[in-house]
Amino acid sequence: MAIEEAIQAVLATTTIIVDPPGGTHPHHAPYPQPTVVPGPTHTAYHFQHGTQLSAVFVWIFFGVFTGGLVGTAFLTTRVERRLRVFHVLSGVALAITSMSYLMLATGLGMTHCPPGSRHGHHGHHGHHGHDHDHHKPKHPIETVSTIAKAAVPVVVHVVRQRLWMREVAHIFTLPIVILQLVILSGMPLIAGLWAAFCGSMSCVCAFMGLHFSAQRKLHVRAEFVAWAIVALTWGGIMFAYLFISGVRASKLRPRKTQGRYYMLTALIFIGYLLFTVFYIIGSGLGILSVNAENIALGITDVSTQLGFVFFLLLTHVHDSEDDTYTFPAWLAEPRGDGRGEYAPVATGAEAS
């Protein structure tokens, strides 16, 4: 309805010109045909943003990840300090994710509803004249409607709320997850670091693509497509390392560790695919509402990260056959004098 109202407003400010002269009275002869010349440009807005339902789910996700962080801390106390490699890395990733959802829940890390729109309402709003919305897309979306066989241009800004803090968190958490897979598989460290870097770059590109989430009806912006392609390219390289170098290295590990690596890699791959699908049909195509996209991505985030962390921590056990990386003593244990206690600080007389 907003587009129709905008068109009617355009028609109300247009000028009817007849050439050759013949008048514009409706009882005049059908010839010559009048030509509609558009008047001042009119702008219509289509706002897409989350409702209170989305905000409630963000708080729920924050609570779930915080609970997962507490659970990870509890499991950490049950193993020796030198064996806490996976516990520390998992705790760091969960802490970052938990803080990102807290920021979203408190209104940070997202674009807000434009001025004039009602928070918690998903609908159409029409505005005319100059644009005072600093969140509007830089490239307006033009649609052409034919009224009385005369093309009338209407500029429509599709403004979609973007919850970008989640993608920022993934820039750090995905490499941490990949690094755990590298340690588990025994992959060469140089290859593992490159795989982690590729994962981080994939998330960076996804974050940049969110800037171009405003789209035409049934059409995706070219900038979004470009960033999505680059993001998938980086992700493809990352999984190539995991599926080739990682699988090859895991075959030299104990059978239980090898099977654990396969399952966790498959979990991350499925989670990455789901994120990609929801990202494209949500922010890219605008098929999913902001509510649906946010909830779907949050559920995927919870199931992937918490599933990965607790499956790994509850099933992986260090034994004599497992040479998984452990923290060196100088990093995990207090520095002492060889008798298990802290060495006394030398006084000036003793030092001399």
From TrEMBL:
Membrane topology: Multi-pass membrane protein
GO cellular component: endoplasmic reticulum; plasma membrane
Coiled-coil regions, chain positions: none
Keyword check for Transmembrane: yes
One GO BP annotation of this record: phototransduction
Chain intervals with Basic residues compositional bias: 118-138
Compartments, record wording: Membrane
Family: Belongs to the archaeal/bacterial/fungal opsin family.
PANTHER family, A to Z: BACTERIORHODOPSIN _OPSIN, NOPA (EUROFUNG), PTHR28286
The name this protein goes by in its record: Uncharacterized protein
Species lineage: Eukaryota, Fungi, Dikarya, Basidiomycota, Agaricomycotina
